[in-house]
Design a protein that fits this description.
Layout (H helix, E strand, L loop, with lengths): L1 E9 L2 H12 L3 E7 L2 E8 L2 E8 L4 H9 L2 E9 L2 H10 L10 E2 L5 E5 L9 E5 L1
Parallel strand pairs: 1-4, 5-8
Antiparallel strand pairs: 1-5, 2-3, 3-4, 6-7, 7-8
Length: about 130
C-alpha cells in the first residue's frame, strides 16, 4: 500500500488551488462535483492534494461547520481494496464503509473510522 492523497477541506477552493499550485508547483489534474462537494486534485511528485469544498450540503459542509478548514483525511492506494478492508477488520478497526463505494475520479473508496485509527480519518483508494 502506498500514500495516495491528503484530503483538505476548504471554504475557498480556488484560493487554495492558486496557492498550492504556486507553492508546490502542483498542477490541477482533475476537477469534479459530486456528493455535495467540489473536488480538485493537484498533482505532487509522490501523490496528490485533494481539495474539498462544500456546496448543497453534504459531509464536507458538516465537517467545516464542526472543525473548520484543514486536513480532512489521508488516503492510501490499495492494490486490492477488499483485502485491505479485511485486514482492517482483522485488526479490529471500525469501518465507516464495510464495502467499497464510488468515490472521486472514478475510484472505489472505503473509509476507516477515526475513533479506531488514532483520530485520523483514513481512506482506502482502489488502484
Amino acid at each position: 500500500m502506498q500514500f495516495h492523497h491528503a484530503g483538505i477541506a476548504t471554504d475557498d477552493i480556488d484560493g487554495l488551488v492558486d496557492l498550492y499550485g504556486r507553492l508546490f508547483d502542483a498542477p490541477v489534474v482533475h476537477r469534479e462535483q459530486f456528493d455535495g462537494m467540489t473536488v480538485v486534485f493537484l498533482e505532487l511528485e509522490d501523490g496528490f492534494f485533494e481539495l474539498l469544498e462544500a456546496h448543497d450540503g453534504g459531509p464536507i459542509e458538516r465537517y467545516l461547520e464542526a472543525h473548520g478548514p484543514g486536513i480532512h483525511h489521508l488516503a492510501f492506494e490499495a492494490a486490492d481494496i477488499e483485502a485491505a478492508l479485511a485486514t482492517a477488520r482483522d485488526c479490529g478497526v471500525e469501518l465507516i464503509d464495510a464495502e467499497p463505494r464510488p468515490g472521486a475520479w472514478g475510484h472505489d473508496v472505503a473509509f476507516l473510522h477515526p475513533a479506531a485509527t488514532g483520530g485520523v480519518l483514513l481512506e482506502f483508494v482502489d488502484r
